[in-house]
Design a protein that fits this description.
Blueprint (H helix, E strand, L loop, with lengths): L6 H11 L2 E4 L3 E2 L3 H10 L7 E4 L2 E2 L10 E3 L5 H7 L6 H11 L6 H16 L4 E2 L9 E4 L21 E2 L2 E6 L6 E4 L3 E5 L2 E4 L6 H12 L3 E7 L3 H8 L8 H9 L4 E4 L6 E3 L4 E7 L6 E3 L2 E2 L5 E2 L2 E3 L1 E9 L5 E3 L9 H19 L3 E5 L9 E6 L6 H9 L10 E6 L7 H11 L2 H4 E7 L12 E8 L21 H10 L10
Parallel strand pairs: 1-3, 2-4, 5-22, 6-14, 24-25, 25-27
Antiparallel strand pairs: 3-5, 7-21, 8-11, 9-10, 9-13, 11-12, 12-21, 13-16, 14-15, 16-21, 17-20, 18-19, 23-24, 26-27
The chain binds flavin mononucleotide.
The site of flavin mononucleotide (FMN) has 20 residues, from strand 10, helix 6 and helix 9.
Length: 495
């Protein structure tokens, strides 16, 4: 597959797949676009990607920036955006990279070379010449965020929000970059509120800058190569630069350029970059409410205000957005890519994990099914504790552990087995921990209980001494006979 370097290339690739739907009817950025996108995202398979060619701004004028939505919103588009046929292919690449034991013999060692050469492609490179993302530059009084087609998604939202962002910042002590997908509320022509939640790297950088009493440079990227945009949403450890990870996914470096008014680098081929700074000496501002991933409104809260010092863009920039709300939405596919790509990393520290799945209904944190190869008593609890200690997985509210043969990606199968296998009082454990900022039911903001359900087959040491029944299965001979008979039965293709 060819490497996709920019949003226009991504849109062209989707068009070629026959999955791009252009809308030339004028549609308001306030609510109307969201209602259309929501209906499309609820279509079987996630619906087509949408390109609104005539977004209607708040003053009634037609925006010169078309709006792209739902670009990642299907399994095939998500995989294509990351240059693979299926997302597990990246998981397999990670497994191979982690398995770096040096092979025997000269030829064996030679075979390592291509893998090591590939690693050299990961770090970003600086682009030469005038970058596409700076073909047009607004500074000073020219800056007017009202000219961008920023969506207001739900009726009780606190205002317009940019949603499909890659927010670039730097750890002031170690210089490590972070790129995070955080929503950004437009407060005025030159001011926005930055919604990085307390568990996220951007918030950690801000806390460090505030402790030093220094202004924090920030860039908001809208529309870049899809691997960079996905990486911004991925729960990478804080010391890994998302642009390096994007380089791994793309198998080619991300091309960066210096921002015009702040000391940060941004993707050279981005559509729009909003540059600015946050002054930690300034009071926090009210951000929200916002119709959120959970399908509920999240309450207004206090977040830092960013002052915009420049808006740079391509000549014919496309504005990209997503909407969140009652699942399933486009974010399910981004989360699903994370799920598949991070499986080998979870297995690295918890090798009994066979597979895991976060169903759309649970958002990212409410429900995680995990299958394990259980060989000793208490192992399901060991796995739960490991997951509740692993990065953003620590925010998982309900973990359901089943045996290795269960296909956890089939939610019906997972529940069928889990509900059969539990004695609720014996097999449920509660613990406490950090909760997602968006969880509205926990007893306190970002703090509450978690539930683990051990739905594995129980060992005698776990107090189970009765016989364990067999799962019903037809014998192979009868199955083969019915396969033969099937075409004569007039029952369709069957299985
Ligand atoms: C569409 C979308 C919107 C998101 N909005 C936010 C947000 O407003 N604030 C936030 O902290 N995380 C948000 N997230 C989740 C973060 O992008 C995710 O946790 C990511 O790992 C954060 O990066 P970091 O670990 O580098 O901080 C969003 C994710 C998606 C897919």
């Amino acid at each position: 597959m060819t490497v996709i370097d920019s949003l226009p290339e991504f849109i062209a690739a989707i068009d070629k797949m026959g999955e791009l739907h252009r809308i030339s009817t004028p549609v308001k950025v306030e609510l109307e676009m969201c209602e259309i996108a929501d209906r499309v995202m609820k279509m079987p398979g996630g619906g087509p990607a949408l390109l609104f060619e005539k977004p209607v701004l708040r003053d009634g004028s037609i925006s010169k920036f078309p709006v792209a939505i739902n670009l990642f919103g299907s399994m095939t588009r998500m995989a294509m955006s990351l240059g693979v046929e299926k997302l597990d292919d990246h998981g397999d690449r990670i497994t191979k990279l982690l398995d770096m034991k040096v092979p025997e013999g000269f030829l064996g060692k030679l075979q390592l070379l291509p893998r090591l050469m590939e690693v050299a492609k990961f770090p970003p490179r600086m682009a030469s010449g005038t970058p596409a993302c700076q073909e047009v530059v607004w500074t000073g009084d020219e800056i007017d965020l009202d000219k961008l087609p920023v969506l207001t998604t739900w009726p009780e939202d606190g205002g317009p929000f940019m949603t499909m962002t890659a927010v670039v910042s730097k750890d002031p002590a170690r210089g490590i970059r972070n790129v995070g997908m955080y929503r950004v509320q437009v407060l005025g022509k030159r001011e926005v509120a930055m919604h990085w939640q307390r568990h996220k790297s951007g918030a950690a950088h801000f806390a460090e800058m505030a402790a030093r009493g220094e202004r924090m440079p920030v860039c908001i990227v809208i529309g870049a190569d899809p691997a960079s945009m996905f990486s911004a949403s991925a729960p990478l450890p804080p010391n890994i630069d998302e642009f390096i990870f994007a380089g791994f996914l793309r198998k080619a470096p991300v091309k960066l350029t210096k921002a015009v008014t702040c000391d940060l680098e941004v993707p050279a081929d981005a559509e729009i970059v909003i540059e600015g700074y946050i002054d930690p000496a300034e009071a926090l501002v009210v951000e929200g409410p916002f119709g959120d991933h959970t399908g509920y409104y999240s309450e207004a809260d206090l977040y830092p205000k960013m002052h915009v010092t420049a808006v740079t863009m391509r000549k014919n920039a496309v504005y990209s957005a997503t909407i969140v709300g009652r699942p399933p939405m486009e974010d399910f596919y981004l989360g699903h890519a994370t799920e598949r790509i991070f499986l080998p990393l979870l297995k690295l520290t918890t090798p009994e994990i066979v597979d895991y799945h976060m169903p759309a209904e649970g958002g990212f944190h409410n429900l995680v099914f995990v299958s394990i190869k259980k060989t000793y008593p208490g192992q399901a609890y060991k796995v739960m504790n490991a997951l509740w200690g692993a990065g953003l997985m620590s925010l998982a509210k309900v973990l359901v552990v089943v045996d290795d043969w269960v296909n956890v990606r089939n939610v019906q199968e997972a529940w069928w087995v889990a509900l059969n296998n539990i004695d609720p009082e014996r097999d449920t454990r509660f613990t406490m921990g950090p909760m997602d900022v968006l969880d509205h039911a926990s007893r306190a903001f970002t703090y509450g209980s978690k539930m683990g359900l051990d739905a594995t087959r129980k060992f005698p040491e776990e107090g189970f001494t009765r016989d364990w029944p067999k799962v019903i299965e037809m014998d192979a001979k009868t199955k083969a006979r019915v396969d033969e008979l099937w075409p004569q039965l007039g029952l369709g293709a069957g299985k």
